[in-house]
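W.,

You were right to be curious about this one. When I first looked at the sequence I had no strong expectations either way, so I just let the prediction run and decided to look at it fresh. Below is the sequence, 335 residues in total, followed by the output.
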Amino acid sequence: MPKRRIVDLRENNRPLLDVVSYGRRGPAHRPLSKADVAHISRTVRRAPEVLVKVSGGARSLRGVAQHLDYIGREGRGEVRTDDGDRLQGMGFEKALLKDWDLDLEAHRRYSERAIIAGRKPPKLVHNLVFSMPKGTPPDKVLRAVQVFGREKFALKHRYAMALHVDQGNPHVHMVVKAVSEQGVRLYIRKPMLREWRGDFAQYLRDQGVEANATERAVRGETRITKRDGIHRAMLRGESTHMRARANAIGRELAAGRLTPESGKRVLLETRKAVLVGWRGLAEILERDGNPQLASTVRRFADTMPPPRTEKECIAHQIEAKITARGRAEDRVPTT
């Protein structure tokens, strides 16, 4: 089974905050720009981090309609389109499918699929999610996503969006037609998602909202991202996948030994490279006459929590619950 990689520090595309390169020995680095310093400052101050992810995509008209119905809260919510229309009520998705010519796209694609048997049909739409932590003004999150849509997709890819606030953190669901009006298919790769995160954060800052976009490993976080269905089930407390995983880990703890995961070595190597990079940045900041930020950077690096695999995180939570339960029982007065 291939090892899970938390972050690839060897990728050719430049990450959002390339701290690792500053820890490598070699020729002099390019000077830090004002934007670099601002990004470093936001990161070490732990400014709210944006989230932009692909939550899936539909390959059939029925799948597109079901997702539009979901983000429209089955007619109770409001969906905004790239034309500025505000759609609400049951059945709005049928008109949208027709307006986007998705029925024609599906017919053409299925004809091609008959020729190339066995291949999955390409997506009709991409489903995106733009999210910010609880407490961020929802109207500003929506406005930032509207700017994003205009900048990235206007006059090319049709799109629609809906703001949701019922889960605490304001987030916007966006449905983007996979094939543009010019017939060009949209392929979403990791470098593109990185760029989108940085742009979304900037659009939020333009709205007066402090927002940052940095890879988790650079921030000292090692949380593993779950598939959208598992994540939603976890939020509801109904994830059978996570329940089974926790039960298995609980049995290992009861037996007195937690079997290590193969990804631990990668986590440790990544953390080592990240720490070296942050310390290299601190030296550059001090050399450039910014000792206060250099000191904050060193403190940020020194106080990163230890890297943990998903199994170790779950085990830590189980042990914390057992300890809390034991303390509660100790406080119960005896008669």
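Here's what jumped out at me. The radius of gyration is 23 Å. And, maybe more interesting for your project: Residues 1-12 have pLDDT under 50 and may be disordered.

Coffee later to discuss?

I.
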